[in-house]
Structure to design on (583 residues):
């Protein structure tokens, strides 16, 4: 089986999730006889990154370069990668499930009339096929999904599904193959403009040893002070899931998750947070995770060390009272 | 400006999910359904564009009969007409087959702009908008947090990871996938609900779209996921549970 891994870089810096996908490819390859893993790097002036990839246990490295690939556009990337795919003829194309991949990979697959199983968390190699595992219902269920029809098959893996530090290094350096990329300016409809960060960072939650995080279970902005008081008593900072910041109940610099901060405090207390993957990726590295949720099947309990199935409007006051007593 | 909004109906957020014995899907009896949250933000964005620049908003939904409810809700909020891809053959299709059906239904109308939510809260494939763009030959951008119309072009704020954003420009016609939180969603007014009763909902069956093609993938089974960690559940009254938890955090985990 020929496996193509599409890595991701921006301005010459790796997105580390690409290495997790490379690990996925190496692991899948080990289950299939005669497998070849070929990572590709795409951009402008990225030969140095291709050299880095060549030190890993891979068959070869594809270098997909063009002036028009300096900045990401869905048209440019889809056209260039289609040319790389035509040349390599892979069976399986693995991508990290990043915002960028979400933006172009389904388009690339559809342009070849092929399907993509997106946002997978794992796989199972069975006799004649590979079963891909992904979440559904915001993590409340998992699903086994398989491909129908002829390859190539497109799969993206969620950040954290594999460990990037487990990548196997090669005994010898792999060859680098430059793909002849034919791209014209008029084929690219999007004009990418500047990248920017929004609000000022008033707090740096990455430095807080304890975080008390509220989710939609807190119901109304009037209830936020209850959690704020508890955070203060515990010697921690207040954090939140995305909907709380979208509503403007707390500023965006308190948002934890893929579009907010990534934190790893010694204690993370999740109050009324369901545990959607986009939240969990931002906090699962915490040393101790406590979840309080009225739904015993809430996915947050999958990553929690301690759990209480209950109503936060009973438990926040109870915790507050107990802490006040011992002060 | 002629805008189409693709809306999915999904199980309500707090619906207790029970997987059917075959593992094919969830038990649909006894649970409520609602408009997929990101799609409700996409609808709001479409209505605001119409209010500012004039034109028409068409609400499209694909799914069984129950799905008509979300089209009615969109009409009550101000959409002008509805399209319902109502056929059992549309149910639980793979992403590419779903998009092919929707693309075929949208094609005749020559929309300037097609909006979808960025993903659904049930299957969560997160591909439909991008696939529609490819199938219809349109430019697209995803995970959009702001739309500015500048003549025949759009200036868009794309959300990226970790608090980053990017401005991009695109020509119309285009497809955009909308991120939750882009706006504040309105409620339907009583007047709107009354007016919706007179609005047209076109019903489309799959045969009539003349689309061929096999599914590209199959969901074999859904199930309750295995836990990554062993959670120690603490029970008792709120007071007891709070005391036990603090005790554990102090002396077992040693983090307090
Ligand atoms: C591209 C993308 C990026 C995203 N980025 C982020 C991100 O950075 N951060 C983020 O958080 N989300 C992000 N999301 C959104 C994410 O998918 C979820 O929608 C969100 O995390 C849900 O927030 P929540 O858990 O607070 O709300 P819900 O999912 O609505 O959960 C509320 C929970 O509260 C519980 N509850 C309700 N009342 C009570 C009570 N009285 N007592 C106890 N429990 C109660 C419920 O059982 C439920 O589990 C992103 C989504 C996408 C698609």
């Amino acid at each position: 089986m020929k496996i193509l891994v599409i890595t991701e870089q921006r301005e010459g810096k790796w997105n580390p999730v690409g290495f997790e996908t490379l690990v996925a490819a190496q692991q899948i390859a080990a289950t299939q006889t005669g497998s070849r893993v070929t990572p590709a790097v795409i951009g402008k002036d990225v030969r140095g990154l291709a050299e880095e990839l060549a030190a890993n246990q891979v068959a070869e490295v594809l270098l997909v370069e063009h002036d028009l690939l300096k900045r990401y556009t869905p048209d440019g990337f889809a056209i260039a990668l289609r040319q790389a795919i035509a040349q390599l003829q892979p069976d399986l194309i693995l991508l990290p499930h990043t915002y960028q991949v979400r933006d172009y990979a389904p388009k690339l697959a559809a342009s070849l009339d092929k399907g993509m199983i997106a946002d997978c968390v794992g796989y199972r190699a069975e006799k004649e096929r590979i079963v891909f595992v992904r979440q559904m219902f915001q993590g409340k269920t998992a699903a086994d999904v398989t491909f129908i029809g002829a390859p190539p098959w497109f799969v993206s893996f969620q950040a954290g599904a594999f460990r990037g530090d487990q990548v196997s290094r090669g005994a010898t350096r792999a060859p680098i193959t430059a793909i002849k990329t034919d791209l014209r300016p008029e084929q690219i409809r999007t004009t990418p403009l500047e990248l920017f960060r929004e609000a000022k960072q008033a707090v740096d939650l990455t430095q807080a040893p304890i975080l008390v995080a509220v989710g939609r279970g807190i119901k109304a902005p009037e209830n936020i002070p209850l959690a704020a008081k508890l955070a203060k008593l515990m010697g921690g900072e207040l954090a939140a899931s995305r909907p709380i910041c979208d509503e403007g109940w707390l500023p965006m610099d308190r948002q934890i998750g893929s579009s907010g901060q990534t934190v790893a405090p010694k204690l993370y207390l999740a109050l009324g947070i369901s545990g959607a993957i986009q939240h969990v990726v931002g906090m699962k590295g915490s040393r101790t995770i406590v979840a309080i949720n009225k739904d015993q099947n809430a996915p947050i309990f999958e990553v929690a060390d301690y759990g209480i199935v209950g109503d936060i409007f009973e438990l926040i006051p109870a915790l507050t009272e107990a802490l006040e007593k011992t002060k | 400006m002629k805008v189409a909004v693709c809306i999915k109906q999904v199980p309500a957020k707090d619906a207790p999910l029970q997987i059917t014995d075959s593992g094919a899907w969830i038990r649909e009896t006894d649970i409520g359904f609602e408009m997929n949250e990101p799609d409700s933000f996409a609808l709001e964005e479409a209505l605001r564009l119409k209010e500012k620049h004039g034109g028409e908003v068409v609400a499209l939904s694909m799914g069984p009969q129950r799905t008509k409810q979300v089209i009615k809700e969109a009409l009550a909020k101000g959409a002008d007409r509805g399209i319902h891809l109502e056929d059992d053959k549309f149910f639980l299709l793979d992403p590419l087959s779903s998009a092919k059906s929707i693309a075929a239904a949208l094609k005749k109308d020559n929309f300037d702009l097609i909006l979808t939510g960025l993903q659904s809260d049930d299957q969560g494939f997160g591909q439909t908008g991008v696939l529609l763009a490819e199938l219809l030959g349109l430019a697209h951008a995803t995970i959009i947090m702001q739309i500015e119309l500048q003549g025949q072009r759009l200036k868009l704020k794309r959300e990226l990871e970790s608090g980053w954003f990017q401005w991009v420009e695109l020509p119309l016609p285009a497809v955009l996938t909308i991120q939750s939180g882009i706006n504040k969603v309105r409620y339907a007014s009583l007047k709107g609900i009354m007016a919706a009763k007179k609005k047209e909902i076109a019903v489309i069956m799959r045969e009539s779209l003349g689309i061929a093609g096999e599914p590209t993938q199959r969901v074999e089974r859904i199930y309750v996921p295995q836990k990554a960690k062993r959670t120690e559940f603490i029970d008792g009254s709120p007071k007891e549970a709070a005391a036990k938890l603090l005790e554990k955090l102090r002396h077992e985990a040693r983090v307090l």
Notes: The two ends of chain A are 63 Å apart (CA to CA). The mean pLDDT of chain A is 96. Chain A touches chain B through 91 residues (CB under 8 Å). The longest strand of chain A covers residues 116-126.
